Amino acid sequence: MSLSKLPRAEGSANTSLLSKVGLLFSIDLIAAAYGSYLGKDIQSFWALIGLVVLSFVLLFAVKIVEQANKFAGILLAAGFALTVGLWSGPALLHWSHVLGWQTVAFSFLGTCLAMTVFGGIGAFSGRDFSSWGPFLFQALLGLLIFRIILMFLPTMSGTSILSGLAGVVLFSGYFIYDFYRAAHDANTWENAIDHSIEIFLDFVNFLFSLLQLESKGK
What is d(CA 43, CA 25) in angstroms, rounded to the nearest whole number? Predict the structure, then answer.
């Protein structure tokens, strides 16, 4: 998505679009939380794979439908978040056993705080973060490759901490970048849906990276 070409004073933010993004992000987060509760006891590997595939299908559908009907796009985006919650539920249950529900809850609040701080920097600092996109994407690919390699290697001391720390740093950067884009894009519901999904994914990835960091390899 290209940023809006409408003239805007340097450092000013499109608060109307940010309000839409905040509303839709809240809906997506509630849907994901409900989904994680429903899916916490899923044990079938193939059921989880099916839910992951379904989430990608819904994400693709959002991009198609939102252009024709914003309400259908919002509902599909909430369905996408619900599906993400369903296949994330077993992982959250695992972290609750490893770290305790209190730690998981504090990690959630910590993720909210990080999103507020770094998102605020991106949206309201007046700096231009548009050039961050390619670097963040390359870093994301590197992190994915690193985590895939770790799946096939014997557990080594410190690798889980390193992976979690890298994720926290990376998605802190994504909070800045995606909020910057949300604050400087055209004020449309289509853009609001897209940005809310991007920030929702930043939130989920930051939370899971933080939980991995706190596990200290457990």
Answer: 28
Helix axes 101-124, 70-99, angle to 10 degrees: 140
Token code pair at residue 191:
């853009």
3-state secondary structure at position 143: helix
Q: Give the separation between CA 148 and CA 165, rounded to whole angstroms.
A: 16
> What's the DSSP call for residue 161?
H
Q: What is the pLDDT of residues 168-212, one digit of tens each?
A: 999 999 999 999 999 999 999 999 999 999 999 999 999 999 999
Q: Which pLDDT tens digit goes with each residue over 85-131?
A: 999 999 999 999 999 999 999 999 999 999 999 999 999 998 999 99
Closest-CA residue to 90 (of 47, 133, 149, 30): 47
Nearest to 183 by CA among 53, 49, 5, 16: 16
Dihedral sign, Cα of residue 78, residue 68, residue 201, residue 148: positive
Distances (CA, A) of 49 to 13, 211, 217: 39, 22, 25
pTM more than 0.85: yes
DSSP 80: H
User: Phi-psi bin for 126: left (phi > 0), alpha (psi -120 to 50), beta?
Assistant: left
Question: Using an 8 Å Cβ cutoff, are 1 and 185 in contact?
Answer: yes
Tokens of 134: 């390619």
Residue 175: count of CB within 10 angstroms of its CB = 25
